[in-house]
Inverse folding.
């Protein structure tokens, strides 16, 4: 049997103040994955690349599940966690050609304390800059809004929300000169910044639309400021989405002396968000560009493996022609894309998912499954996606 290796790495950067639930969120995600409680884990395994990290996350999860113990605080701890998404052994036994394929998720956890406090000295300052530089390859950044803090500020939610967003904008500006070389904007940088309501179980009457409306009403100006600040980091700031996507997240349902880890919200959407939101945004952005070839080339680079898997479009041939005027590349690309699985209109994604399963095409089946999860999140008012 012919063995091939196809890997696609998606990265997500998670920002949130201390106590906003980042560690609990990640631990629940991994523990539920190991117990095959996350959507899709009947077809694939999610495994930590670093065994020690995986064991620590699993320990956190079991402590919550069996003893109602929350994970210890990770004060000033900056860690990146890598997970592989692999076909289950024997899942393609009927296939004539076995393909050893995998996806990978890298989760960057940025310490909340660095948005609230100044570094204690040069060594910590250096670590903060290095941590931020490590997450520059992320396509998606997620900002956690703490439901408990909203409850603590009922009637004056803007006090908490303005502080949260202003601190992030301020710290990004402080990092800017250390991140940009010779003040040159970056082609590679998180271009999708979505807002996530963490601990959403504390606000059971809040759906994703009311969450969006709260933020726009209370801190619309601060969201615009954050978009301006992020735009100063990137080449082609028109290819940027800040505060246009929203999601509800709950790691578990917390009760006195009991944590119901299976009662979660939005955790099934983390992988689909990291994998599929860039596909829906980056290519239209690149096609619309008339300048900024470096950014366009990076956008094409991100979506090329995904479009190839889904639509078999011959993007490498077109990529070889970059840099050329971007409008020319877009004109060449459009006919191929119009026939590809990039177009998920109507029920096409379900048909593609069935076809991929019948062909034992692991990557196409997984990615179309991710897209179906995003659509389901929209329907259940857990996810609200912006439009290009």
């Amino acid at each position: 049997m012919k063995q091939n290796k196809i890997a696609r790495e998606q990265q997500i950067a998670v920002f949130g103040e201390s106590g906003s639930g980042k560690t609990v969120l990640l631990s629940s995600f991994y523990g539920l994955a190991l117990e095959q409680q996350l959507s899709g884990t009947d077809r694939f395994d999610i495994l930590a690349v670093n065994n020690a990290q995986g064991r620590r996350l699993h320990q956190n999860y079991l402590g919550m599940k069996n003893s109602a113990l929350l994970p210890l605080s990770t004060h000033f701890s900056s860690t990146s966690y890598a997970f592989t998404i692999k076909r289950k052994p024997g899942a393609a036994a009927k296939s004539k050609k076995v393909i050893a394929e995998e996806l990978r998720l890298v989760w960057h956890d940025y310490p909340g304390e660095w948005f609230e406090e100044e570094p204690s000295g040069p060594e910590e300052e250096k670590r903060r800059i290095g941590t931020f530089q490590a997450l520059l390859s992320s396509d998606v950044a997620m900002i956690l809004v703490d439901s408990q803090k909203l409850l603590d500020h009922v009637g004056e939610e803007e006090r908490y929300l303005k502080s949260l967003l202003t601190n992030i904008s301020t710290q990004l500006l402080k990092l800017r000169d250390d991140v940009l070389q010779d003040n040159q904007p970056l082609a590679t940088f998180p271009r999708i910044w979505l807002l996530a309501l963490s601990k959403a179980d504390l606000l059971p009457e809040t759906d994703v639309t009311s969450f969006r409306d709260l933020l726009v009403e209370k801190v619309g100006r601060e969201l615009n400021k954050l978009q301006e600040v992020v735009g100063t980091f990137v080449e082609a700031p028109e290819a940027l989405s800040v505060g246009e996507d929203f999601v509800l997240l709950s790691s578990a349902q917390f009760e006195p002396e009991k944590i119901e880890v299976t009662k979660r919200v939005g955790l099934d959407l983390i992988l689909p968000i990291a994998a599929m939101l860039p596909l829906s945004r980056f290519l239209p952005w690149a096609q619309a560009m008339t300048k900024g070839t470096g950014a366009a080339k990076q956008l094409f680079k991100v979506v090329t493996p995904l479009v190839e898997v889904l639509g078999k479009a011959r993007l490498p041939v077109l990529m070889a022609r970059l840099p050329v005027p971007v409008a020319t590349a877009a004109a060449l690309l459009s006919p191929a894309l119009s026939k590809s699985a990039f177009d998920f209109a109507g029920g096409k994604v379900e048909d593609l998912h069935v076809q991929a399963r019948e062909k034992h095409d692991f990557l196409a089946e997984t990615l179309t499954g991710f897209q179906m999860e995003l659509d389901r999140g929209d329907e259940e008012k857990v996810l609200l996606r912006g439009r290009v």
